[in-house]
Give the backbone structure.
Amino acid sequence: MQLLKERILKDGTVKPGNVLKVDSFLNHQMDISLINEIGKEFKSRFSECPITKILTIEASGIGIACITAQYFNVPVIFAKKTQSLNLDGDMYTTKVQSFTHKKVYDVILSKKFLGPDDHVLLIDDFLANGCALLGLIDIVRESGATLEGAGIVIEKGFQEGGDRIRNMGIRLESLAIIDSMSDDSLTFRD
Amino acid sequence: MQLLKERILKDGTVKPGNVLKVDSFLNHQMDISLINEIGKEFKSRFSECPITKILTIEASGIGIACITAQYFNVPVIFAKKTQSLNLDGDMYTTKVQSFTHKKVYDVILSKKFLGPDDHVLLIDDFLANGCALLGLIDIVRESGATLEGAGIVIEKGFQEGGDRIRNMGIRLESLAIIDSMSDDSLTFRD
């Protein structure tokens, strides 16, 4: 997605440890006009899929999922990160490892909101090692719903998440895939 | 807001400990059509204010803030909850007590995204004791920005948050104020 790539080149910054900061437009401050274009692009790429729910994970995926959901006319459900076991009612649960925060947390979704009749599109802002997305995939499988695919805004193509997901036979649409980055350059996959 | 009140009566459930569950349409599964009506209502109530930024706090406020921001044509910024002190660059910080999780966490917002020229609308899904909203107010004051007001979807009018905010002279628009609730009844303020 050209508009997104241009924005990453203009406003993204690379920090030590392969960190790409896009907090001025995507995941701390959010440029809603850009995110609308992102939502339209996801709709265009998954237009033939009979999506009934968009599933994301808190926190930074929620806004993108909500804007995108307007183009699909479906509800958003978001999985919650928790370290408590004080769960209300029946929940799908999985575990996700966070490299950023160096811990494992439980991720939960109420069983009320996802079942075998659903067709799910996963949405998230970033894909790196793939742990968060694999957690969501786990939840979809547990629910018996059909996974139509995953839409990611920025994929770090030099980390293993994208390959892991694609090798599972899951349709993955990343709007910008970064193949390499350093302080003064950033290369997108064609 | 009549549509919202009807939806709360239809799909909300009261749990022990004065907990109102609206997770089927507001803060776990999100009915995007309803949230669009909520966004329009906030725009109508704050239409004369020169809003430049919508500020919310992760996680469940983000989707509502993003949908609402479309009607104001402004970016969303969301404060992050953190227990780490590994902060990148200059941050506004405050502390918020969570009664639900029984702990105090740091709330941060990058100084890059809010300053004296900004006019801020706060958006959140719930107002009960007011701790989260007071944290956001603290951040706005620290930034020197003008606080135009706060838009809340559901206020628990029998808890002290609403009075605390209004007594500070801050304009607070809650789309549904619940004055009392029990297992089999729920009373809205007129």
Observations:
- The CA atoms of residues 84 and 106 of chain A lie 8 Å apart.
